[in-house]
Amino acid sequence: MEKGRKFLGFGKNVFVTGLVSFFMDVSSEMIYPLVPLFLSSVLGANKSLIGLIEGIAESTASLLKVFSGWFSDKIGRRKGLMAAGYAISTLSRPLVALAAGWHQVLGSRFMDRFGKGVRTSPRDAIIAESTDRKFLGRAFGFHRSMDTMGAVVGPGLAFFLLGIFSNDYRKVFWLSMVPGLFAVLLIIFFITEKKSRLPKHSERPKLTLKHFDGRFRWFLLIVTIFALGNSSDVFLILRAQQVGIATVTIPVVYLLFNLIYSVSSIFAGMAADRFGRKRIILCGFVLFAVVYYGFATVADVKVVWVLFALYGIYMGLTEGVQKAFLTTIIPAEFKATAFGVYNTAIGLAMFPASFIGGWLWDHISPAATFYFGAVTAVSAAVALVAFIVFGKKGVST
């Protein structure tokens, strides 16, 4: 656990990592809600192609998460991998700004997710290693809150800049590099790297699940089932547009979602520390099923706003809390490896999730995309109930 001066009750590494994620998400979310609109309205891509782009970008790049986590544990270093990952994502912005076809957008999205794959597992390990076990929910909740507050500011800036530049997407894409550069500089100058994390008697990390017990594998299966129906958020944006939300208002809808996500994350983390992390995750799965059912049947613009608000609460209940729970069921010397396996499993599931979502939209109906997600969420919730009832005892989760 990290000692020394506290910032808002958190150790320096946890606090600075939150700031890093804030600035990077400002950069990312200036682009993300605009990309599907840019692809469909400017470049003429259909929904299946948009889903394919998102699936390839997320899943292929996610393979790196397990390797970066394993490599971070092997060399006992986190900071360099973090800095490299954030820098790669920042340098992906010119590709989309200059894109003349969907191939360049795919390249930009892949490069951005490549950077995320490099940085995510070492970053999560830094947070876990800098936090007392009983405050894990609060620490990961704070990180998600800061990360998502950046996702509030990002669409707000995009909305403001689109108005100034008369809906010129490319200029917004160029300007998104600035906050990304701030994130990289914060890592270089303010994250403290420990010399070594692996005790001499410990086994060197290997790319195998033998380091982890049945609880980890069961939980991994649950989140993978859930992820198979959790298609890219671009479909939520496209559904909102289809129902009648104006294009210029899309960043505002996404801003509302992220604002609620940010606020709910830290409260959900505190609740998880007090009432049990698995219970909070279960509430999130059930809420997701309700929200996706709502998107399948929605016909009123006002309801879209409500659904995005509820989606923000779902995210707050699950994203940080799942990582806090994961920390309690993995060996200390394999933290980054475990986060890598976890992140990669979810990321790989996003390829079929997004591709299936796009196929269902084009070949059956937009509603089918969301019905499918609701069904997989209910399935994951049932599996999690079984985990709670029959899982091993003796661990405070």
Query: Helical stretch count?
Result: 16
- Side-by-side strand order of the widest sheet: 1-2
Which regions have little confidence, pLDDT < 50, spanning 5+ residues? 393-397
What's the domain count? 1
CATH homologous superfamily assignment: MFS general substrate transporter like domains
Distance between the termini: 19 Å
Percent strand = under 5%
Radius of gyration: 20 Å
CATH class reads: Mainly Alpha
pLDDT averaged over residues: 84
Helix amount, in percent? Answer: over 70%
- Secondary-structure element order, N to C: EEHHHHHHHHHHHHHHHH
CATH architecture group name: Up-down Bundle
- What is the makeup of the main sheet? 2 strands, antiparallel
Q: What is the CATH T-level topology?
A: Growth Hormone, Chain: A
Report on the structure:
This protein is mainly alpha-helical and 397 residues long. The chain has one domain (10-193, 211-390): Growth Hormone, Chain: A. The chain contains 16 helices and two strands. It has helices at 12-31, 35-42, 47-75, 79-91, 93-97, 102-129, 136-164, 169-175, 177-190, 214-227, 234-243, 250-275, 277-297, 301-327, 335-363, 366-390, and strands spanning 6-7, 10-11. A two-stranded antiparallel ribbon has the order 1-2. A hairpin with a 2-residue loop joins strand 1 and strand 2. Helix 1 packs antiparallel against helix 9, helix 10 runs antiparallel to helix 16 (366-390) and helix 12 (250-275) runs parallel beside helix 14 (301-327). 57% of the residues are buried.
